Amino acid sequence: MSTSVETPRAGVIGQPLPRIDGRLKVSGRANYVADNIVGDVAFAAPVVSTVGAGTITALDPSAAEAAPGVLRVLHHGNMPRLRRCPDDMANKLKASEERVPFEDQTVYYAGQYVALVIAETYEQARWASHLVKVTYHADPPALTLDEGAARSGIKPQEDEKTERGDTAKAYREAPVQHDATYTTPVEVHNPMEMHATLARWDAGRLIVHDSTQWVVGQAKSLAYVLDIPEEQVELHAPFIGGGFGSKLFLWPHTILAAVAARVTGRPVKLVLPRQHQFTAVGHRPATRQHVQLGATRDGRLLALRHDSLSHTSCVTEFVESCGEMTAWLYQCPNVSVTGSIVAVNVGTPTSMRAPGIASGMFALESAMDELAVKLAIDPIELRRRNTPERDQVKNVPWSSHYYTRCLDVVTERFGWSRRSVEPGSMRQGRERIGWGFASATWPAIRRQASARVELRSDGSARVVCATQDIGTGTYTVLAQVVSEITTLPFSQIEVAIGQSGYPPGPISGGSMATATVVPAVAAATRAAVTNLFIAVTAPKGPLAGAAPEAVTLRDGHLHAGARRIAFRAALEQLRTLPIVGEATTKPGEEAKHFSFRSFGAHCVEVRWDPGISHLRVTRVVSAFDVGRLINRLTARSQIEGAIVMGLGAALQEHSVYDRRSGRVVTDNLADYLVPVHADVPEIDVSMLDIPDPHIGDFGAKGLGEIGVTGMTAAIANAFYHATGRRIRDLPLTVERVMET
Ligand code: MOS
Q1: How much of the chain is in helix, strand and coil states, percent to nearest 5?
Q2: Ligand 1, CB within 6 Å, residue ranges
Q3: Which of 239, 485, 525, 623 lies in disulfide reach of 686, CB 3.0 to 4.6 Å?
């Protein structure tokens, strides 16, 4: 039996410490982009295309220009020249949408920016944005995968391919076969804080406050687009109200705000309305996935085929990598994975929490459940029989792999052994009860990062890194690492993040921030402590005469033999302050010798009332192997939030497009449903909390995304168990689950 998340342990690492920025947030003092008050600020409001495809034949800004307070109207006819940002992650350059705003007169999707009004007040800008008269030649938009394929074809993606063995033959000859197609709809991130940018120019320097998941990349990419030296751009993101992938890379509105500030000579604030969330800043694209499974009668996989198709926009190629995990999650000698895209007239899709895998696991884990039914083998037992010894793609051992222990934990905590196999056989009153299972997985990514730690005369420490906290607890994690190593009280650690000029730290994406930044902060802290030992043992230092290597740090004191001095007293006596430690860390040889992944398992209970076609998720029990937890409180919040997101994806979330205009019909939180508290059941999260021995200091594998993976399949599988009906198209809305 694993430790649950509540198990106490010594030290600061792992403790369930509340966010150090929590007080600022709940008291309204945390400064989000829109909160910034700047003298002389002007406001910008985009004008968006009302047609889904076509051409702008005329754009008349005169009425808008004559409206009260209007400073400028930008459009294709007067837009300064911009450069397209290359897709070059190695150099920290990436735009979510490659086409720069107003680049041509073509309309690629409804909601595309066609003009920008800049005015003295927010209200004046919004009012005048309605006065820009745009005339279109409208074409019928292609909105679905089929319409896009019929118009411009399907583009296979070489990068998405994995082939192992002879899948066609193995499938043909397999004693038990399963073949089905699954679909997932467009889903939208909808963070609480809307996308917003405040840009101002100061003597050729561009200072931007932006809600971004990557201060470093955003500064560099923006500099590239504007064709100015990257040192001239300063990006601030002290607080971000969620991102989920929609704030990873540069979007047009940030570019527009910077250009607007330049042409007006004023600071410009641009806050997107909620409607633009549905068109202008990404979404999880629709997918169609064909899965074939071949197995022996005792449930060993012989063949696994996973072909996926996802949509992209007409201006950028985004690929939803649905087959990312298919070749390594289960033991199987013959595997064929492909991925293709098709361009449609919708806004550009982007990464959304667990991109690829969240969509792909709906298909793979539904298919595994269907196979289990055909084999008459318990679905958890089927997973046990196909648990891989090592990563069959990279052909290396796992860095750590406690997947079967996750199965043990969920089986026990959920009470899975009491499940009666026959669909519809578990009932209570009018309700049928369904119990479903699915696996969870996500890569455990670590990259390069730098950090600086300063030990100050007042006995406090400051840690500095150009990463950011998107609401997940990064501030707190950094303070914990410094506190752990220095033994300084947690409250004595100041964390400075959210600025592009700091030592370059990680993107808050791919669940890689913690695993990436923790080793850098640990190394910088150790370097600072070493420098402190050197300083205190120098002539006239408080521990003069002792060898630096002989000094130790315990309970907030420096010890050298029998001598000791309080950390703060020692620092007060030093003349050269602060004592600084700097470090840059990155993965080493271990990256080649091991496969780094996180694993998990979900058991879900649903209750189905056929009389009123009411489907509820009533219990979720999940367990995760995500390495060591740095903070059990924020870790659990991450997982719970992801599980709730999976619940929304399973039951509610999907964008609806008007077939004639291509506009999003559900462009608000009244029509686009997400789970509210009343939809969220008891969630029982266990984390094994076993450090990964290879990933770096403290052994954290990252956990921002894994919780959402597998959730949709676990719920659909539970619905099957309750009703005997298999639904292969998400979400399980009332129209789909109703008995007809
Ligand atoms: Mo995540 S989709 O990498 O923010």
Answers
A1: 30, 25, 45
A2: 213, 243-245, 248, 351-353, 355, 509-510
A3: 623
